[in-house]
Specification:
The complex is a heterodimer of chains A (391) and B (154).
Chain A: H1 2-26, H2 34-44, H3 49-59, H4 67-75, H5 77-87, H6 109-128, H7 132-149, H8 154-177, H9 182-195, H10 203-216, H11 219-229, H12 234-244, H13 248-269, H14 273-291, H15 298-303, H16 307-337, E1 359-362, E2 366-370, E3 384-388
Antiparallel strand pairs in A: 1-2, 2-3
Chain B: H1 4-13, H2 19-36, H3 53-74, H4 100-123, H5 135-148
Helix pairs in contact in B: 1-3, 2-3
Chain lengths: 391, 154
């Protein structure tokens, strides 16, 4: 009797397991974690050196469409689709072990950038063959990918920033070339508004920098961290010497200095641009200045990055993104009224460098949106986007 | 031979350790130092004219070391809970190039392109491009494994 019961129970269990597996395999794609698809794409995509520069030139409009590019994009269509699918998944967990502090191993970011170049080329192809909506859809996907890449480490934030900035340029180009289409522009405006609910922000990276620094300022970690993080030189040599003879008080006092320093940096990032720039510039020099006379500044001098360029990049991206959103408003107004508006539409985002509205200049066949960045004057036109207007 | 004063200075400058291990470290440090004392300041070996001085110098050194350690411990000068950091040599492994701190260093050197280049370097296969094995190769390998495990190969 027992044997029969056991046998029946075994069959039921086997059946239940099979059904569960089938059910789970039926909903296995797409997975609920976007990082699974990104990692798969990173693993499978091998960017061919011979075509890399052609893809970049094509994306930037320096060369036209070619059969070689067409073939390459067709060959890599499964990778492109995999990444586009990933961007539609809300949850993205890269599985980073944050308990390692600044020694956390990061995903292979070069692959993310290579895949960006691939998809940007595919978006350009869509625009070239007369599908601007599809081109812009791929751009929205790239914005989402950048948000997924924006994990807490500063490097992740910088990679995400680079991809967002490059996508902004693609959008400027596609908007300039597409015929007036209120429906597509309304869709794009709404998509950008949705993205803005979780904007690409530098603040989580600053929070993590502070936390990671404290984790790394442990006697068993700090030596390796300083070895990996500093170039050979006097600072590294002297810091390692202090670490060799450090006692527990040294670590406690260095953590206090670090927390105080990071608090001031974080507060400065929240200030208006000009005040922030002056303060961050001073803060960047402070740990190195204190190093000689104050041993408490030793580890901060070793671990603190130079914050000013990070701040400038963050504000510049904000200015560019605000300009893209303002341009969509201008194009939408043109699509609805048949002419460019005299001023920027109400509610347009401002220039974060000046705190004033973006400068708007219109001509017959184009309009310009300009921001007042002082750090980037060497290249003419670097502080503005020019948008063409099709008759 | 180094004078007793030199040896004393050497002891005074040696890293401060406490406990049994620390005593061993102190002695090890002294033993490393002492052979060098046979070199004169000109770099030429000096003849030990009075061999009887040598054991006396060792004895004096050990006595001074013991006294210094005892003084540090009993006078309460040695910090409690002292934790010495182990400073490992710089790692050269590929994986170590993918840590946040290492990539930040790359970013300082050359921006996002340097980060990209370091990632590529970290993951570069040492034997060149990886080739996906063919079905035949996989089957052959499995057959080989079967043999190794004592089974039959087809």
């Amino acid at each position: 009797m027992n044997a029969i019961l056991c046998s029946r129970f075994g069959n039921i269990l086997l059946f239940a397991t099979t059904v569960t597996l089938l059910a789970s395999s039926a909903r296995a794609y797409p997975p609920d974690n976007a990082a699974v698809l990104y990692y798969r794409a990173f693993l499978l995509y091998e960017a061919e050196d011979a075509i890399k520069s052609a893809l970049d030139d094509y994306r930037q409009g320096r060369i036209g469409h070619s059969e070689e590019i067409e073939r390459y994009l067709a060959k890599n269509a499964p990778i492109i689709n995999m990444v586009l699918d990933a961007t539609h998944i809300e949850h993205c967990d890269w599985g980073l072990d944050y308990s390692q502090g600044t020694e956390v191993l990061l995903p292979p970011h070069h692959k993310a950038r290579e895949i960006f170049f691939l998809i940007a080329a595919e978006a350009t192809r869509q625009a070239d063959i007369g599908h601007p909506r599809q081109a812009l859809e791929r751009c929205v996907c790239m914005y989402r990918m950048a948000n997924h890449l924006n994990e807490r480490p500063l490097i992740c934030h910088l990679v995400a920033t680079a991809i967002t900035a490059a996508t902004n340029k693609c959008v400027v180009r596609f908007l300039s070339e597409m015929p007036s289409d209120a429906e597509t522009l309304t869709w794009l405006r709404d998509e950008l508004a949705t993205l803005d609910q979780q904007p690409l922000s530098v603040y989580p990276a600053l929070d993590w920098k502070r936390e990671a620094g404290v984790i790394s300022m442990a006697p068993e970690r700090i030596g390796g961290v300083v070895q990996a993080g500093l170039d050979e030189g006097d600072l590294k040599k002297r810091a390692l010497e202090r670490i060799r003879t450090a006692d527990s008080q040294f670590y406690a006092r260095n953590i206090v200095y670090w927390n105080s320093f990071l608090s001031r940096v974080q507060a400065a990032f929240h200030k208006p641009y000009e005040a922030a720039r002056v303060e961050i510039q001073e803060l960047d020099k402070q740990p190195a200045k204190d190093f000689d006379r104050n041993p408490d500044a030793t580890l901060t001098a070793c671990l603190a990055p130079t914050f000013l360029p990070i701040h400038v990049l963050s504000v510049r991206l904000q200015a560019q993104s605000n300009a893209v959103r303002a341009a969509v408003g201008v194009y939408l107004s043109q699509a609805q009224t048949g002419r460019l508006p005299e001023t920027l539409p109400a509610g347009s985002l401002s220039d974060p460098f000046s705190g004033k509205p973006l400068q708007y200049e219109k001509a017959d066949d184009h309009f310009v949106l300009r921001w007042q960045e002082k750090e980037n004057p060497q290249k003419a036109g670097a502080n503005q986007y020019e948008f063409k207007v099709r008759p | 031979m180094r004078s007793l004063r030199d040896v004393k200075r050497s002891v005074a400058q040696a890293p401060v350790h406490v406990g049994r291990k620390a005593d061993d470290a102190m002695l090890e440090h002294l033993l490393r130092e002492l052979p060098a004392s046979e070199e004169s300041s000109t770099g030429r070996p000096t003849q030990v004219r009075r061999p009887v001085m040598r054991p006396m110098a060792y004895a004096a050194t050990v006595a001074i070391a013991t006294a210094v350690v005892a003084w540090l411990v009993f006078a309460g000068r040695a910090p409690e809970n002292q934790q010495f950091a182990t400073v490992a040599p710089a790692s050269t492994s590929g994986i170590a190039l993918l840590t946040e701190i290492s990539l930040e260093r790359a970013f300082r050197r050359g921006g996002i392109e340097a980060v990209e280049s370091q990632c590529r370097k970290a993951l570069a296969a040492p034997t060149g491009k990886r080739v996906t094995p063919s079905l035949e190769e996989l089957l052959a390998e499995l057959a080989g494994n079967e043999k190794d495990m004592g089974g039959k190969s087809s």
